[in-house]
Amino acid sequence: MNDTKKKNIEEVRLMKGNEAIAHAAIRCGCDGYFGYPITPQSEIMETLMELEPWNTTGMVVLQAESETASINMVYGGAGCGKKSMTSSSSPGVSLMQEGISYIACAELPCVIVNVMRGGPGLGTIQPSQADYFQSVKGGGHGDYKLITLAPASVQEMADHTVMAFDLAFKYLTPVLILADGVIGQMMEKVILPPFQPRMIEEEIREKCPWATLGKPKSRKPNVITSLSLEAEEMETINIRLQAKYHKIEENEVLYEEFSCDDAEYLIVAFGTSARVCQKAVEMARAEGIKAGMLRPITLFPFPTVAISNHANKVKGMLTVEMSAGQMVEDVRLAVNGRVPVEFYGRMGGIVPSPDEVLKALKDKIVKQQLVIN
Amino acid sequence: MTVNEIINPANLVYEKPKVMNDTPMHYCPGCSHGVVHKLIAEIIEEMDFQEKTIGIAPVGCAVFAYKYLDIDWQQAAHGRAPALATAVKRLLPDRLVFTYQGDGDLAAIGTAETIHAANRGENIAIIFINNGIYGMTGGQMAPTTLVGMKSSTSPNGRTVPLNGNPLDITKLLAQLDGTCYVTRQSVHTVGSVRKTKKAIRKAFENSMMNKGTSVVEVVSTCNSGWKLTPEASNDWMVENMFPAYPLGDLKDL
Amino acid sequence: MKEEIIIAGFGGQGVLSMGKILAYSGLMQGQEVSWMPSYGPEQRGGTANVTVILSDERISSPVLNSYDTAIVLNQPSLDRFESKVKPGGTLIFDGNGFKRFPTRTDINIYRIDATEYAYANNESKTMNMIILGGLLKVRPIVQVENVLKGLKKSLPDRHHHLIPMNEKAIQTGMKLIQKLS
Questions:
Q1: What distance in Å separates the CA atoms of residue B174 and residue B84, rounded to the nearest whole number?
Q2: Distance (Å, whole) CA A300 – CA A149
Q3: Residue-wise pLDDT tens digits, B90-123
């Protein structure tokens, strides 16, 4: 939610979140996008095809035959040290889980965008946040984690695309941008990131010595694989992965606070829910209720410490999600029983209104506190 | 004459290709994979392409192909090799990119990836080992298992009402506009090995000339899965596999 | 200043593009803007609506439950959104095909028969701009010159020759709109 007001009006563009991702991908030197159409994120590939970056930066854009093929094309591209990405929405991302697990194990950098819609099943095309568990607790098979970014504005859709590639290459791991139909479809002001050239091959060979670009005489063959039949060897790989995730938890937590300084009640929400909750906080404050909001920007790593610290200061917390209540489990783990943590959510593609959130805050938290006191 | 006197370059009549390393192969004695691996290694060496080749290994018996050939490899999820190869070749258009896949990988779980990569005319070579059975998982029925042929999941022989028909995917791939060269070979005799080598070389050259997708099917044996001796397997293949999967070029543009 | 607007009607009435032009106009006068459409197959013939917010401050929720102004272009949209106009707010409707008319007395209600006018004068392509003109007459939230600037920024060059036609439609709408209560 950057303030774009002071910037030169010429730099400010008005576009959909999905379009912002496409522009940002080209600008940050992405080498390859591979995707399959699905509402509500098809504008990402449509914008790329319209912009024809193969004529400018040389970026490859390809419509694959399925999400399965898309994510495996990303695997192939990432294995060559190329900045590779795909995007989809919930059902399509379910289909990608096999590939994501392989990429995580092979320790390859890539970016996956999930513009969530209501599920389960084919569900609706309306916005949802019900893929939280899938995103931060695994999704595919095996012990792996995805760095998960949760943009809450069109500006962040652009910014997170750049950040996602940086993190992916820093930690050699897939990074997920977990948006929803509102953020994808909504138009807002955005300042696009500056152009960065794509990495040239010498640069890739230097920065990604593991990349399969063809074996020069000077080194051994590079092999991208996620297979080892020896259990001891596989455990070693797992230990290495866990150490990496631990390092990510120590260094990469991002969150934003709103009206938290003197807050007696804390709302925790991400993405579109956080936008709605911010309004609810404004309304609560107008009524004299000291509410604040914490918005996790990274869902993995989760801002556990920040939420835990608030548990020492506030009387209660309300987690608001467009799901049956998924992130609330992580909030409760962080709070560890010190204050009540309640949940309010809508499902199946419904976005809660600021009114509903305010009412839930009053009914579930504020009134309960009055009863206790 | 001592052994060391015999080993000198003047006496050399045959050697292992340098692209092939000394790792002992895990393939069963009599398996066709080793022969095809060696042919690929020879061709890469002859073309002087070791620095420019990226191979995509499948899931199946050849999952460890990357252990034996000293080139850069990616090992794909089951059936997805053509998707990986698509991205690799598009991002590195001056490289030689090939997939090495078995019948289960290419013609069952990876049918969509195979057909669409070939239909787009990706400039890759697909080496397809068809032995009509799942070797690695222990001899289960494959899409190319012949009618009447026994496997662990068709213990009384494949029947059409129960199991459906064998899939001649190579014939299907030859129909697609994206393929430039589709051929079916074998490696059970010296003559057939030579022909297969020529075919793979042509497929690799096509990839470098960006002519489209080349498919080289090698009708192969799996003596362990077929529960026959290597020799009997070859005979069985000639008698039973060749009538269903006849050798020769299906397409050569 | 902050204006929260819902525009609703049938797909094909130019609901989403009217919202877009409004958002671009806000952009041209340096405001914060958000444009949140209902999306999907309903764009084609079903109901379509878009929430547009123009504000001097950072915009929190792009999804709202009440609006300063509602522009409703068909009966289902009136039925759905009349009750969601804030007291003292504005409701603008195009009466074409309506069987039930607005009844609230605590809001400002305007009628603009843009559909009828546009078809009678063969100007159906600028129907939504006539309505936008009506809105700007009663709620001058953006200046007409910024609307024109916004059109220039949002339209591809090949469509810039259409801008004068749109300007004329805005003027038409300003004349056409009538206050009912």
A1: 21
A2: 7
A3: 999 999 999 999 999 999 999 999 999 999 999 9
Cα dihedral value C20, C26, C32, C35, nearest 10 = -10
Nearest in space to A88 (alpha carbons), one of A34, A49, A48: A34
CATH superfamily of C2-179: Pyruvate-ferredoxin oxidoreductase, PFOR, domain III (3.40.920.10)
C109 pairs with which residues across the strands?
C91
Residue A130 DSSP code: T
Considering only the beta carbons, identify the residue of B51, B74, B76 that sits closest to A215: B51
A:B CB pairs within 8 Å:
128
Closest chain B CA to residue A83: B91
d(CA A69, CA B85) in angstroms, rounded, equals 11
Token output for B149: 């042929």
Domain A12-202 homologous superfamily, CATH = Thiamin diphosphate (ThDP)-binding fold, Pyr/PP domains (3.40.50.970)
The rounded distance, in Å, linking the Cα atoms of B76 and A77 is: 12
Q: Give yes or no for A125 touching B (CB within 8 A).
A: no
How far is the C-alpha of A322 from the C-alpha of A90, rounded, in Å?
A: 13
Residues of chain A within CATH 3.40.50.970 domain(s) are 12-202
Q: What class does CATH assign to A255-372?
A: alpha beta
**Residue where the block lists tokens 């809508």:** A346
Write down the pTM of the prediction: 0.94
Distance CA A318, CA A293 (A): 9
A3 interaction partners in chain C (CB closer than 8 Å) = 58
Residues C56-105: tens digit of each pLDDT: 999 999 999 999 999 999 999 999 999 999 999 999 999 898 999 999 99
**Whether A224 and B74 lie within 8 Å, measured CB to CB:** yes
Residues on B contacting A at a C-beta cutoff of 8 Å: 50-54, 56-57, 63, 66, 69-77, 80, 83-88, 90-92, 95, 112-113, 116
Residues of B in contact with A80 (CB under 8 A): 54, 87-88, 91-92
Q: How far is C30 from chain A (nearest CA, A)?
A: 7
One-letter identity of residue A280? A
ipTM surpassing 0.90: yes
User: 3-state DSSP call for residue B213?
Assistant: strand
